[in-house]
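can u do me a favor
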């Protein structure tokens, strides 16, 4: 890292500095964010991930925005843990449509001991396709984090959601500190961190500043920072939340870009509600990662081909991920993986 680069990577931001960024005139904020973005990234490349819900619904937590919580009647169909083979099939399809990272999400408070062999098999199987792997499974203790890291998991997603001050209005079943502990376990196990939040939940601008301050002052910035826009789901406590001003969303992206210049800032849930112009503005503000595919866990995501059309119109290319194994080696690795485990090991027995 050269001296110039180093001077932009800070972990000692003050709340006043972050709030001052939010308060900048919009054009000045965009200019700063774009200037910095171009120093660290090719502005015409966007990293593409695909998200697969490996276990849907029936979550015991009470996150007020989430249709997967068992506490809210959202009409969501519950699904058991997906078979490993099926996950690998989904990953193959994701790779064929241009994704370089495959993210697997389970609606758990935290994984149980009996779940771990299945999820580690998933990591190994998806990795053998030459894709980067990411998981979000809830809270992890030190040992679970190490097990996943040893299986080869590249990224772990665990969001802080919002500022510490507003957090209690959104979730009561786990604390902010619980989340920070999981993030520390993930980091200590050697995995990359994917951590961000949601805007539009009724928080103040100072809460958006508070969230980004937490992320930017971590000892290492999360490599991936998803910025979600609330998807209002009928049946959840936030179903009738007032709409967020789109410019406030773009400002949040721009400030995240300035505070964490080396991180991928991800345009995440809520893209369905954004028109092409708003998405283009988010890219201008420094967003350089998206989820691509038909579903974003359980909320709709703009159709994959629509994304590609937008990329074409904007001259954006998906960011490449170097795959060292050739296609044949990858196929052989998958076949091996499948052969090594007895078939029934690939299926989750919910009765256990
Ligand atoms: S956000 Fe995660 S932890 Fe919270 S209710 Fe939804 S699935 Fe459960």
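np, heres the sequence
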């Amino acid at each position: 890292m050269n001296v110039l680069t180093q001077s932009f990577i800070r972990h000692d931001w003050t709340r006043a500095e972050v709030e001052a960024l939010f308060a900048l005139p919009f054009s000045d904020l965009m200019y700063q964010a774009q200037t910095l973005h171009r120093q660290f990234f090719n502005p015409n490349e966007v990293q593409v991930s695909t998200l697969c819900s490996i276990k849907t619904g029936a979550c015991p937590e009470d996150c007020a925005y989430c249709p997967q919580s068992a506490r809210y009647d959202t009409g969501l169909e519950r699904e058991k843990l997906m078979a490993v083979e099926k996950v690998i099939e989904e990953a193959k399809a994701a790779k064929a449509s241009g994704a370089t990272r495959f993210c697997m999400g389970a609606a758990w408070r935290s994984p149980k001991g009996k779940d771990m062999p299945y999820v580690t098999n998933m990591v190994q199987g998806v990795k053998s396709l030459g894709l980067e792997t990411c998981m979000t499974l809830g809270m992890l203790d030190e040992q679970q984090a190490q097990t996943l890291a040893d299986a080869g998991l590249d990224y772990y997603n665990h969001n802080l959601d919002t500022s510490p001050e507003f957090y209690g209005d959104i979730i009561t079943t786990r604390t902010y500190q619980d989340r920070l502990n999981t993030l520390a376990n993930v980091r200590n196990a050697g995995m990359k961190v994917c951590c961000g939040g949601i805007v539009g939940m009724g928080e103040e601008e100072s809460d958006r500043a508070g969230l980004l301050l937490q992320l930017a002052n971590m000892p290492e910035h999360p490599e991936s920072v998803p910025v979600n826009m609330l998807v209002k789901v009928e049946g959840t406590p936030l179903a009738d939340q007032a709409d967020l001003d789109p410019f406030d969303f773009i400002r949040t992206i721009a400030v995240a870009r300035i505070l964490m210049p080396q991180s991928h800032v991800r345009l995440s849930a809520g893209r369905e509600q954004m028109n092409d112009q708003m998405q283009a503005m988010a890219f201008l503000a420094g967003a350089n990662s998206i989820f691509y595919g038909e579903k974003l866990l359980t909320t709709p995501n703009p159709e994959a081909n629509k994304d590609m059309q937008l990329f074409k119109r904007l001259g954006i290319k998906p960011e490449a991920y170097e795959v060292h194994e050739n296609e044949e080696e990858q196929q052989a690795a998958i076949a091996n993986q499948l052969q090594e485990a007895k078939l029934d090991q690939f299926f989750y027995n919910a009765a256990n």
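The pocket of iron/sulfur cluster is lined by residues 59, 61, 63, 66, 68-69, 107, 138 (CB under 6 Å). hope that helps!!
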